[in-house]
Amino acid sequence: MDNTEAFKKRYQAVVKQSPYRISKIKDHDYNYNWVDHLSLDDRLEFEYEQMIAVHLPENRFRELVETEERFYKRLNENQILGGTASAIVRQAERELHIRNDNPAVKAAYEKYLHLLGLVESAYDDNTLKVGD
């Protein structure tokens, strides 16, 4: 049973396609030099993602909200190093959301990870000596 089916069974949920869609900027060349080529011809194109509707019995919805509240409360109670762990989780969730909603940020982040991987390989060599 996949996660969606388990969710539907656990919360007695009915999942249907929604008539609503959300718009997102289509991927394009983010290395384009916008300063030299600003014009009305340079338009952003959008794509639309289908949304879904989730219908829950009221008591199951309250249970879901309370479960989420307990999760975040427990996360905050189990703070490590003065709340650093929960702050890291919140920041990671926020950054993931930003990357998913902004293709330019996602492209830049992927380039950053690539460069970081290249540089890290130099640090992985434990045979380097001071003064080399």
Describe the structure.
The chain is flat and about 55 Å long. The chain has 2 domains: 1-60, no CATH class; 73-123, no CATH class. The chain starts with a helix and ends in an 8-residue tail after the last helix. The mean pLDDT is 79. The chain has 4 helices and 2 strands; from the N terminus they run αββααα. The protein is of the alpha+beta class and 132 residues long. Helix 3 crosses helix 4. A two-stranded antiparallel sheet has the order 1-2.
Secondary structural class: alpha+beta
What's the pLDDT, averaged over the residues? 79
Describe the main β-sheet briefly: 2 strands, antiparallel
Give the SSE string.
HEEHHH
Kindly report how far apart the N and C termini lie. 56 Å
Number of DSSP strand runs:
2
Q: Strand portion, in percent?
A: 15-25%
Rg result: 22 Å
In terms of per-residue confidence, which ranges show pLDDT below 50 for 5 or more consecutive residues? Answer: none
- Envelope shape: flat
Which percent bin holds the helix content? 40-55%
Total count of helical runs of at least 4 residues: 4
Largest sheet strand order: 1-2
Question: What is the number of independent domains?
Answer: 2
